[in-house]
Amino acid sequence: MNTIEQFEASGSHHEVGLAIGSHFADAIHRFFDRYERLQEQLLPFYHTSTGKNYYQSFLALHHTRFPGYMSEIEGIAEGAKRPFEEVFLVNLRGEFSGLIPKESQPGDTAVQGCTDCLVFTADSALIGHNEDGSPASLGRMYVVTVNLDEGPTFSALSYPGFLPGNAFGFNEAGILHTVNHVAPRPIKVGLSRHFLARDLLDARTLDEAIRNITVSDRASGFNYNIGSLSERRVVSVEVAPERHHVYEVQGYYTHTNHYFELNDQKQEIALSSRKRLERSMTLCRVTPPTDAGHILALLGDQTDRDYPIFRDATLPDADATLCSALYDLDSRELRIYYDHPVKEPEKFVKLTL
Q1: Which DSSP string do the residues of 253-288 spell out, in sequence order?
Q2: Which helix (H) or strand (E) holds 154?
Q3: CB of 263 within 8 A of CB of 257?
Q4: Main-chain phi, psi angles of 100, to 5 degrees
């Protein structure tokens, strides 16, 4: 059964990672053992001479730029009794796999999630998000609330073994966000988007959040949808290795897994992303979303059975919607639906922002 466990951790970066790794060790082992991207791409490439060289470059860079987050990863690995290299590699998944020569990549194991619908009007300030990914994650995701010795307390949905931040989360400063995968090309050795997403959770203002995700030396990119409670603003930020674009949301806005504000950015676009965006925009044109009900209906749409917005790992679409999130900035709450948000609306956990 797909559920969302909640867990609290506090202390230093290493102590937080150790607590998370120890508590969720079983979920981490089960996920890592089934995770095709790790087993079929990342680890085989890591064991090549080229992969080792790339790995060492990433390792040195992240130790220098993000020593605290590296301590979190070390703690997760120690607590779960899983090799550090594996935990670091899954947090480099977009960058490290993007450096694998095409002829060495087995099949199509590309990450293809997620879908967002944002509404910002005088009456509503909402961010809706489907968290899509490998079915191996179903029932193994969790919300961590972290109270570090330094930085604001935050809560975030997390994948087993991953740094918090690459799905969605919020902090005590009133900064909240969701993340969508994008696939810029080429990839280079640089700062991992998972580390930048983790850094977003330490931001105290919207402008600081944007600065944290657009620092120089980026290896790849994400689409970040960010809200600020104190400023009552919602933005959508497309980040590529060399450029970024900030879109101030007014009315409604929807995003999937490819760049369209940075429309000349070289990238790989999955068919699912195109189909979900087309369907989302059609729904929005027919009935412009103005409230939570409209957003949840969009996130739950399965009209296109080959490439639905709410995904159920039915071929040709191999990914699944792991949960759906709805932020209400005015009510200051986050609901996480761990089943279909329309068919099973009572199945959610609520957090206060």
Answers
A1: EEE-SS-SSSTT--B---HHHHHHHHHHHHHHHHS-
A2: strand 154-158
A3: no
A4: -70, 130
The C-alpha atoms of residue 219 and residue 193 are separated, in whole angstroms, by 7
CB atoms within 10 A of CB 103: 5
Q: How far apart are CA 195 and CA 200, in angstroms?
A: 9
Q: What are phi and psi of 176, to 5 degrees?
A: -135, 155
Q: What is the mean pLDDT of the chain?
A: 94
pLDDT score of 139: 84
Buried b (16+ CB within 10 A) or exposed e, 235-253: bbbbbbbeebbbbebeebb
| Rounded-to-integer distance, Cα 157 and Cα 27, Å | 14
Q: Label residue 164 exposed, middle or buried (CB < 10 Å: 0-12, 13-18, 19+).
A: buried
Q: What is the DSSP string of 43-88?
A: HHHHTSHHHHHHHHHHHHHHHHH-HHHHHHHHHHHHHHT--HHHHH
115-352 folds as: Penicillin V Acylase; Chain A (3.60.60)
Say which DSSP state 11 is in.
Answer: E
CA distance 220 to 188: 7
- Give pLDDT tens digits for 30-69: 999 999 899 999 999 999 999 999 999 999 999 999 999 9
> What is the C-alpha radius of gyration for the chain, rounded to an integer number of angstroms?
19
Record the tokens describing residue 239, joined without a space: 């980040």
Residue 299 burial (CB count, 10 A): 25
Query: pLDDT digits over 67-101, tens only?
Result: 999 999 999 999 999 999 999 999 999 999 999 98
Length of the chain: 353
How many other β-carbons are positioned within 10 Å of the β-carbon of residue 88? 23
pLDDT value for 289: 95
Cross-sheet strand order for the sheet of 320-328 = 251-255, 115-120, 125-133, 320-328, 333-337, 348-352
Output the furthest CA–CA distance in the chain (Å, rounded). 57
